[in-house]
Amino acid sequence: MSSLPLSHLHVAVLLGGLSSERDVSLVSGKSCADALERLGAKVARVDAGRDLAQVLTALKPDLVFNALHGAWGEDGCVQGILETLQLPYTHSGVLPSALAMDKAKAKAVLKAAGVTVPGGGLYNRHEVARDHVMAPPYVVKPNAEGSSVGVFIIREGANRPPAEVGSDSWTFGEEVMVEPYIAGQELAVAVLGESSGPRALTVTDIVSNTGWYDYEAKYGENGSRHVLPADIPSTVFEIAKRQAELAHSALGCQSLTRSDFRYDKIKDVLVLLEVNTQPGMTPTSLAPEQAAYAGMGFDDLVKWIVEDAYARSGTGRKTTS
């Protein structure tokens, strides 16, 4: 990829947004905007709301850096707005963003491509709240959320299902994903969608200090410890990298993604849980940490993401939807 003089670019960084992951996005967006300013770009920080189209029309940026996380910003909706405005933007297009965010549809595509995914399926949330829909241990989670928001682990021997899923305060949709609980290590693999094909960087073993890798473990101070590279058998290490690359391709992703896995070393089972099309870019985030391990500092990674988006746009983004 040729070097792009960022001093010639006016970049709008989208941050905040409307989802339950707003606070994380504010941190990711600030980090990326700061990096772009250090690189010499003219940066407009846009707290993305329902008036996003009007704001961007007035700003007239050369390129949009999408640092939103979760629903609306990461599920194809904002990507559709950017396509309509004919603005080049970072990360994946409409279809892969929508696919990856919908856990049930993503699992179907990934399984067909040869990626090992958990069993289970979609259930009505009230049915899940009334009685066990599968024998514990199992996991209940929203079908279209990230950052471990709204996730319940029902342990072996549990007497009751997660009643909270059926409450009036539940805001994550009428259908929830229920999957068998996979014991073992939490692994992550960041992938760069290079012109020669997707390239996995390395494998991180995430050791949670909160019992499991929940929201607090992901973003709280000292919430987790990252073992990089993961201390796992070399064959499993390479399989995780190849499966992450395969998942990136199968969903049609571009730019940077992160695949999350569970590895049960006792049963020697490795399953891919989900693909994140806009991984966190916070000080504790996994993808920047893996990029640094591979010799690409934070500013270099941000520059690569922008250059990738610009290269794919020509003078106007080649749509991926």
From TrEMBL:
Active-site residues (renumbered): 21, 147, 285
InterPro entries membership: ATP-grasp (IPR011761), ATP_grasp_subdomain_1 (IPR013815), D-Ala_lig_Van_CS (IPR000291), D_ala_D_ala (IPR005905), Dala_Dala_lig_C (IPR011095), Dala_Dala_lig_N (IPR011127), PreATP-grasp_dom_sf (IPR016185)
Gene giving rise to this polypeptide: ddl
Catalytic activity: 2 D-alanine + ATP = D-alanyl-D-alanine + ADP + phosphate + H(+)
UniProt pathway annotation: Cell wall biogenesis; peptidoglycan biosynthesis
EC number in record: 6.3.2.4
Record-listed Mg(2+) 1 binding positions: 260, 274
Name the UniProt record assigns to this protein: D-alanine--D-alanine ligase
Annotated positions binding Mg(2+) 2: 274, 276
Free-text cofactor note: Binds 2 magnesium or manganese ions per subunit.
UniProt keyword list: ATP-binding, Cell shape, Cell wall biogenesis/degradation, Cytoplasm, Ligase, Magnesium, Manganese, Metal-binding, Nucleotide-binding, Peptidoglycan synthesis
GO-annotated molecular function: ATP binding; D-alanine-D-alanine ligase activity; metal ion binding
Root EC class: ligase
Annotated Gene3D superfamilies: 3.40.50.20, ATP-grasp fold, A domain, ATP-grasp fold, B domain
